[in-house]
Amino acid sequence: MGNSALRTLATLEETPLSEYAGATVAIDAHHWIYRYLTGLTRYMDDNIYTTEDGTELPNVAGVFRGLPPILREDITPVFVFDGKPHERKADEIQSRRDAKQEAKQKMADAAEAGDTAAMKRYKAQTQSLTPAIHETTREALELLGIPYIEAGGAGEAYTAKMVEYGLADAAMTDDYDALLFGSPTTIRQYTGKGPAEKMLLNKTLHNHGITHEQLVDIGLMCGTDYNDGISGIGPKRGVKYITSGKTVEEILEDKGATIDGLSQLRELFLSPTIGSVPDTPLTRTEPDFAQFRAFANEWEFPTQFIEKNISRFPRYAE
DNA sequence: CTCGAACA
DNA sequence: TGTTCGAGG
Prior knowledge:
This protein folds into two domains: 1-208, 5'-nuclease (Rossmann fold); 210-271, DNA polymerase, domain 1 (Orthogonal Bundle), CATH 1.10.150. It contains 16 helices and nine strands. Strands 1-7-6-5-2-3-4 form a seven-stranded mixed beta sheet, sandwiched between helices. By secondary structure, it is an alpha/beta fold. The protein has helices at 5-9, 29-43, 58-62, 67-72, 90-112, 116-126, 131-143, 155-164, 177-180, 201-208, 212-222, 235-243, 248-255, 262-270, 289-298, 303-312, and strands at residues 12-15, 24-28, 76-81, 148-150, 170-172, 185-188, 196-200, 223-224, 227-228. It is 49% helix and 11% strand. The structure holds a DNA duplex (8 and 9 nucleotides). This is Flap structure-specific endonuclease. It comes from Halorubrum laminariae.
């Protein structure tokens, strides 16, 4: 599974963050946190983010590094946390779990061999979003006046709908699923430095002369986080078959293949379960840096590290 | 993600 | 020859 096929189909354009000045961006919290966790554990000494009782909270340091550039553009970030994953994602979740387990083993081996660089590389791969990380991330967002929402299902689906409903101007995630969930505009590859990448649904559809429904069908044939695709079909043949007027059902018949619960999968992307959405746009409030300092202190973060991060935030009225 | 092998 | 697959960094 996995969906690198969508990468070759997607229309991607470079975009400076300033293009979204004053806008609201719905951020896939899971992806955001994970990105910073792996990045940070790779380069930072772990005693900086480990508390006395051994709890590792690299999020407290990492999650906020990306915020100042966004706030300086007067962008309102809205973090969207995942709800319960769809049961069809179970296999994908299991294989990620297996990969982490394998990385753990390799990390232990590297530690044994005294290979610190390899150890850190594998450690990054073992990172997962623990309950403690979830809890402290929400708490810190509150202290920094950043709004967040709990999605009723997949975060990517929720952020896509927020853009569709006009509650946000763009979704932010690296996940190509955003296209299948119908996000009109998705910001990818945001690093806080240099331009990001925007992925546009309309241009993608127009480039291939297909509808959103057809894109979903192509995705399902190539394989997604929720299903194995049809062996021998990638992005090229997928587009070719669908634009020649064949239906997925016909292609399956030709290949003697099956996709379990095809209509359920289509629904999953075209009308995902998202839970309730707010009826008014979310706004941010003034950060409480004093409380944030106290919070960081509680988690034993070095003061100079926290101060450095705070100094990057735009100036608010004291 | 990049690359070479396998395949239609 | 172009496309997909699968291993490895």
